[in-house]
Amino acid sequence: MASTNSMTKISKSAGGTQLEKSRARRAAASALIGGALEYYDFFLYSLAAAIVFPTMMFPSGTSAATGVLLSLGTLGVGYVARPAGAVIFAHFGDKFGRKRILVMTIVLMGLSTFTIGFLPSYEQVGLLAPVLLVVMRLFQGLSAGAETTGASTLTLESAPHGRRAFYTSFTQSGNSIGFVLANVAFLPIAALPHDLLFSWGWRIPFFASAIVVAVALIMRTKLEETVIFINEVVEEHQEVKIPLFTALRRYPWGIVKVLVLTTSASIGTMLFTFGLAFATRPEFGIVISYTTMIWACIAGYGLNAVFQPFWGILSDRIGRRPVIIFGAITSAVMTFAYFAAIVAHNIPMIFVSIIGAFSIFYAAVNAVSQTFSGELFDVRVRYSASAVGFNAGIVVVGFVPAVATAFVTRDNWMAAPIIVAITCIATAFVVFFSKETHKVRLEDLG
What whole-number distance in Å separates Cα of residue 373 and Cα of residue 171? Predict the structure, then answer.
């Protein structure tokens, strides 16, 4: 308790200036690296679900299209588990602090991903293979359900006034880097001969998660709890018995806003998960090489991570609302160009459109969304409210590729970008009718 009191006194006596900057940098760095390593695991599964699992984890008599549909369905299972992870982990994060939860989530994600590398195929154990796959995906979902909002909450509460969106944007940049790492790891694997890819090659990136866990743990254990949580929850004994219930009672529309805003993330699953399957699977009749599409994905997510801090800076200056609304509308328009380029087999346009849709324009939404969401709530329930709204929206996002697979063909591809456009328009609508918070002090939020 002495160290806690000391930290509180330092914050007050120093005015928070140098201390806030130092803590914000550490929190942002941890969020960036931890998010990258956590989402390396989560996105790695998406790649395998599009390329490997349709063949390996389901009966050989299953049609190719059905195999893709079932495989992308297991992808959605992880998204269904995310709200449960949000409720469980965020509850303790609001009661006992953010740091401990972030350590737990990275361990759970790493262990479940590492185990996937050992799973047998359907030919070896029958139905047990997809069952085990679904169980591991559930554990991934539980972990991911608390990761982004936990890291964002800690960074938001550690950032100095007027810089919250900038520092918090590094959480989402870390997630984007995780996608790049997963694709880079899978790129040489996808280039292997068919027999090697489907026997042992696909397992190597999953085994690499052991390194992921070790590095992430080092970063997470060096974190400090946020001063506002210590001052207003621990020191003042203001913790609530069940944070989620309090949040649902006090901020129901805030949670709905977060949910709707989050559905715009369907642009990611449509461009990178469904788009990858649409472009490479022979049943769609296009057959662009795995390598080409993975490089397009790497470019899209890699540049997205670069642009997000700049949108965060702009949001801190002009507000959350204009940045999010602009990004939502422009990214939806560019999604139509992306799928048209795939159908036309226009490789240069695939790269241009994916960079425009996701790297530049959706980066505006992605960079500011967690800051916008966290600023809707007060410190006692911020983690729970943000996590539940975010992951409820992610459930919708997770099943979008499976829905698109059921309707989209080479000659009838418009359903894919239309789905994205609907979620982006809904996002712009709820943000437009929200209050601006970029000038409100942290202590007064909610």
Answer: 13
Q: Report in angstroms the alpha-carbon separations of 346 from 167, 280, 341, 351, 352.
A: 37, 14, 5, 9, 10
Burial class of residue 21, CB neighbours in 10 A (0-12, 13-18, 19+): middle
Rounded (5°) CA angle 23-365-344: 135
pLDDT at res. 13: 36
What is the per-residue pLDDT across 268-307, written as a single tens digit (0 to 9) for each?
889 988 888 888 877 777 788 878 888 898 899 899 999 9
Count CB neighbours of 256 within 10 A.
14
Domains and CATH numbers, the chain: 13-444 (1.20.1250.20)
Across the chain, what does the average pLDDT equal? Answer: 85
More confidently predicted of 126 and 267 = 267
The token duo for 49 is 């679900």
Q: List the structure tokens of 131.
A: 């069952």
Structure tokens at 101: 């939860």
Q: What is the DSSP letter of 443?
A: G
CA 210 – CA 236 distance, rounded (Å):
40
The rounded Cα 378 to chain-centroid distance in angstroms is 23
Question: With 60 as the cut, is the pLDDT of residue 14 above it?
Answer: no
Closest CA to 51 of 279, 386, 352: 279
